[in-house]
Design goal:
The protein is of the alpha/beta class and 357 residues long. It has helices spanning 2-22, 42-57, 73-84, 98-107, 132-146, 161-177, 194-206, 220-228, 256-268, 296-310, 337-341; strands spanning 27-32, 61-66, 89-92, 112-116, 125-130, 151-156, 182-187, 211-215, 231-236, 247-253, 276-278, 285-287, 321-322, 328-330, 350-351. Helix content is 41%, strand content 20%.
Length: 357
């Protein structure tokens, strides 16, 4: 009898060993965030994407999050630690992480890194970005249709091309609706600082802006718009919880589908370093539902233009484009991706200066 029990136990152990061997090791994925996750904003949207990836792939992935990581040396230290801990896919989700990520990629060739918004790649580092400027054009069009003062305020982080693209596209959209419209810009020189974001928003309201938008990481601009009784086109997240009366719509970032596909490509062994720059047609950027007080004709105009962008019939940087100094940057046709990616000038209608980059 004891021999039978021993044989049975041995068979059970063998079966468990086979089952364990057949269970694939989960892909260890890390996300590095420049600010707290919070309940809205840039980092929050990336974390929603991470959660969507987990929901789609289940036990095929195991994720780690490190939030509030400063750009520069601290981010390099964090990414090195994550690579040393066995993470084979790291998402570096802030512009200033690029050079640190490149150094980590060079020292950990078996690790794949994905950098949000960058302009350099390596054999194991890919950049990914969204054409936020497509939705920014629509936001400006809506702002121009609803602003009574003809002045919009734009709270901006750093003067990198992605931000400049957004300011210019917003201005072009606003001036389509109101040829005399102005977009006043204040720079923060930070991505996340709720107090400074709020102060900049209040300053713009005092300068006549009755519509606010931003390229910064907290809900502070949305909250200021609600308090001041001006309108808002929110950015990154739907900010209705923070600005239920002020928000006209929001430009929202949608990363779940992308993060899921990247993880699947890693598991399948098909990942490549080819840069990704998707737009509204790819589902990376969307508009939140319009506020109840948005005029029907304005909503219809924005929706028609949105469809034209998605279908490739309209491009925001097209036609005659003149910069803020009167120089013709484009006479006709549409601007190419390389020119858009290097954008370092303002269109007519922007009130503000570009600090040295």
């Amino acid at each position: 009898m004891l021999q039978n029990l021993a044989r049975g136990f041995a068979v059970l152990l063998a079966a468990l060993s086979v089952a364990h061997a057949q269970t694939p090791t989960p892909l260890k994925v890390a996300f590095v965030y420049v600010s707290p996750i919070g309940d809205a904003g840039w980092t929050y949207q990336h974390d929603l994407g991470r959660k969507a990836m987990e929901a789609a792939l289940g036990d095929k992935v195991q994720t780690t999050v490190v939030e509030s990581v400063a750009e520069g040396p601290d981010s390099e230290r964090v990414m090195r630690d994550l690579a040393a801990q066995g993470h084979t896919l790291i998402f570096a989700t802030s512009f200033g992480y690029l050079e640190p990520a490149l150094r980590v990629a060079a020292d950990f060739p078996a690790v794949k890194l994905e950098h949000a918004g960058g302009y350099k790649t390596a054999a194991n580092l890919r950049t990914y970005n969204a054409r936020y400027y497509e939705a920014r054009y629509l936001a400006g069009l809506l702002a121009g249709k609803t602003s009574k003062s003809g002045v919009a305020g734009y709270v901006a982080g750093f003067p990198v091309p992605e931000v400049i693209q957004g300011i210019n596209a917003f201005t072009l959209g606003m001036r389509e609706a109101n040829p005399r419209g102005q977009v006043k810009v204040l720079w923060l020189n930070t991505w996340f600082d709720p107090l400074r974001e709020r102060e900049a928003a209040l300053a713009l309201v005092h300068q006549g802006a009755d519509v606010l938008t931003n390229h910064s990481g907290s809900p502070a601009v949305a909250q200021a718009a609600e308090e001041q009784g001006v309108k808002l086109v929110a950015y990154q997240s739907d900010m209705r919880r923070h600005a239920p009366h002020a928000q006209l719509t929001a430009i929202t970032h949608q990363w779940g589908g992308y993060y899921t596909e990247v993880a699947r490509s890693m598991i399948a062994g098909t990942w490549t370093p080819k840069p990704v720059w998707g737009g509204m047609k790819d589902g990376l950027v969307a508009l939140a539902p319009f506020g109840a007080d948005v005029p029907k004709e304005a909503a219809a105009l924005v929706e028609a233009r949105r469809r034209a962008i998605v279908e490739g019939r309209f491009k925001p940087f097209s036609g005659r484009l003149v910069d803020s100094e009167g120089r013709v940057r484009l006479d006709k046709g549409a601007m190419g991706d390389q020119e858009i990616a290097r954008m370092n000038w303002f269109v007519q209608g922007v009130v503000g200066s570009l600090p040295k980059q």
